[in-house]
Amino acid sequence: MAMDEIVEGLSEVSCDVLVIGGGTAGPMAALKAKLKNPKANVVLLEKANVKRSGAISMGMDGLNNAVIPGYATPEQYTKEITIANDGICDQAPVYKYASRCFDIIQELDRFGIKFQKNENGDFDVKKVHHLGSYVLPMPNGDTVKKALYRQLRREQVLISNRYMATRLLTAKDGRIAGVIAVNTRSAEFLVLRAKAVILCTGAAGRLGLPQSGYLWGTYENATNSGDGYAMAYHAGAGLANIECYQINPLIKDYNGPACAYVAGPFGAYTANSEGNRFIECDYWSGQMMQEFYNELQSGKGPVFLKLNHLHSDTVGQIEAVLHTVERPSRGRFHENRGTNYRERMIEMHISEIGLCSGHSASGVFVDEFARTTVTGLYAAGDMASVPHNYMLGAFTNGAVAGEHAIDFAADVELPDYDREDVTREQARVLAPTRRDDGIPPNQLEYKARRLVNDYLQPPKVTAKMQIGQARFAEVRDDLENAMVARDSHELMRALEVSSILDCADMAAFASLFRTESRWGLYHQRVDHPGKNDDDWFCHSILSKQNGKMTAEKRAVAPYIVPIDETERSAYDRQRIRQHA
Ligand SMILES: Cc1cc2nc3c(=O)[nH]c(=O)nc-3n(C[C@H](O)[C@H](O)[C@H](O)COP(=O)(O)OP(=O)(O)OC[C@H]3O[C@@H](n4cnc5c(N)ncnc54)[C@H](O)[C@@H]3O)c2cc1C
Fold first, then answer.
1. How far apart are CA 299 and CA 78, in angstroms?
2. How far apart are the C-alpha atoms of 43 and 45, rounded to whole Å?
């Protein structure tokens, strides 16, 4: 058989809890479900290979948001996230994360992922956020996936690698019944029936096109093409605040994080071309990105990461982390370009847009038990709506989802599904393989993502977004009627373009719905400037109803941790004040 040849085939498997996405949240969800009920059947489905998949595939430099007794309290953290998110925050899931994450840190430490400790043996927490101290370095963060994988094997979680989930199955009463998946090496279909499904498919990271022009040169793990957002949408789940985009400050052309979180505690900072600071704090928020954008547009742009004032040995310490743990390619990038932190500042720029709650807030709506609005469907990690969640949020909420889902599964029968849904999905998936000629997926992907940059990248303009919607409809027409996939690998790419386009449509729709500006640059609407708390102090919830995209308002749940009037605007005051 030739490599990636398309093979006809359909099999069916049943389980109690199915976890989709084996990156960060997924392995923890599967592990916790299995540990809570070792007799249950828990399956972990992954498009790539769990051993090296997801945002932490190469490792991670540290925990961005560790709530460690003695350094921070759950109340303080909940307050910080509420303020960073302009008040649009259901605090219950944030508070639950903050109360639970220290247990998870200790557990990860026992798995062999050692966190940095000081001479007294205590966790060595650094300050980067606006108010509290939450950053905990992971000197051997490159071992994180290996350590997780060992645990999955030990507890005998069933792992299905190289299966891409394409559509969720629902029962007649609307509850979740499983998923349809396609093998990425053979195009064979797998129907996985389950009593509960946990979506952990990460960010929609291939939405905008990086300025480098490379389809895969994204900040996010590039296999995260928003499949989970699209699947949840088609299954009828509500998605929250999709207009609150993810935009990050990155190293120009490399598109990796500048890592002010790593370099900041050593004395590095974000500077303008004059070498001066212009923001108070390097914690990523919409307001911080707005200041970054303003500086880029000003005569003092572009913007740089400044380390050349530091001692050579200090820079060496920073390099030892940045060039070995999370992205070893970073050292090679600087070497090939001939840039050395010691000699000059390193140019940064603003990223293309994506959807990601991990760094922002857009995600499938979940409550404090990681439940979506569809019965039996859970979501955790970058694609669930808990804001500014990062890696430890993915682990912790993955654990919460796994534990709740396994109990839920114990009380219900395996739901039935409609065979017609599978037949219809097979026809949709295989359509590009039935054509002899047409447009290859990578060309459609390039086109869709270029349009995202042209029409959706903030500052947002109503008329532009409307034109964008019309262009996306044309791309969809090509996708449905002219796209060709010649082997199973290209078929995976074709399916990914379909998710990307769904996410682009949702991004435009949600952005047009919220007729105000909020979250700094993430939702800056030029023709609706300023926050309008009277009408828009609420979530926007997008969903598919009767086959159509709709949006509605949802009240922010009453706060558990009160926020003073004076504290509410803390994140608005990001710019360094001019001194006379
Ligand atoms: C470059 C970078 C640096 C970061 N640095 C830090 C840091 O220093 N500290 C920190 O705390 N956080 C950091 N983060 C954030 C953190 O890594 C993420 O928030 C977290 O890992 C997200 O976990 P997740 O499980 O949601 O997604 P992921 O870990 O990305 O996992 C998603 C998985 O789903 C799979 N998948 C996708 N679609 C499908 C499908 N259709 N079917 C089956 N499987 C599918 C993917 O292959 C992937 O394995 C960083 C993120 C990035 C990208």
1. 37
2. 6
Cis peptide before 459 (omega within 30 of 0): yes
The residue nearest atom 53 of ligand 1, judged by CA position, is 220
What's the 446 CA to ligand 1 centre distance in angstroms?
A: 23
Going by CA atoms, what residue is nearest to atom 16 of ligand 1?
391
Among the residue ranges 171-185, 255-269, 279-293, 511-525, the one predicted with the least confidence is 255-269
CA distance 528 to 515: 6
CA dist 276 and 118 (Å) reads: 32
SS3 158: strand
pLDDT(140) > 70: yes
Residue type present at position 170:
T
Dihedral pair phi/psi, residue 305, rounded to 5°: -95, 125
168, 221, 289, 377, 422 from 374: Cα distances, Å: 11, 27, 34, 6, 19
Which has the closest alpha carbon to 164: 569, 499, 405? 499
User: Is the Cβ atom of 63 under 6 angstroms away from ligand 1?
Assistant: yes
Of 558, 554, 496, 548, the residue nearest 204 (C-alpha): 496
Rg (CA), the chain: 23
* Helix-, strand-, coil-residue percentages of the chain, each rounded to 5: 40, 20, 45
Q: Which two tokens stand for residue 8?
A: 């006809």
CA dist., res. 400 & res. 371, Å (int): 10
Q: How many angstroms is it from 173 CA to the middle of ligand 1? A: 32
pLDDT tens for 174-201 read 999 999 999 999 999 999 999 999 999 9
Tokens of 356: 């990601």
Nearest-CA neighbor of 114 among 170, 44, 63, 176?
63
Average pLDDT over residues 471-482: 98
pLDDT of residue 324: 80
Residue 580 confidence class, pLDDT cut points 50, 70, 90: very low
For ligand 1, is residue 54 a contact (CB within 6 Å)?
Answer: yes
The string of pLDDT tens digits covering residues 537-559 is 999 999 999 999 999 999 999 99
SS3 467: helix
Please measure the distance between the N-terminal and C-terminal CA atoms of the chain and give it in whole angstroms.
74
Structure tokens at 283: 């914690």
**Torsions phi, psi of 168, nearest 5?**
-80, 150
Q: Is the pLDDT of residue 79 over 80?
A: yes
**Residue found by looking up tokens 């060039």 in the block:** 323
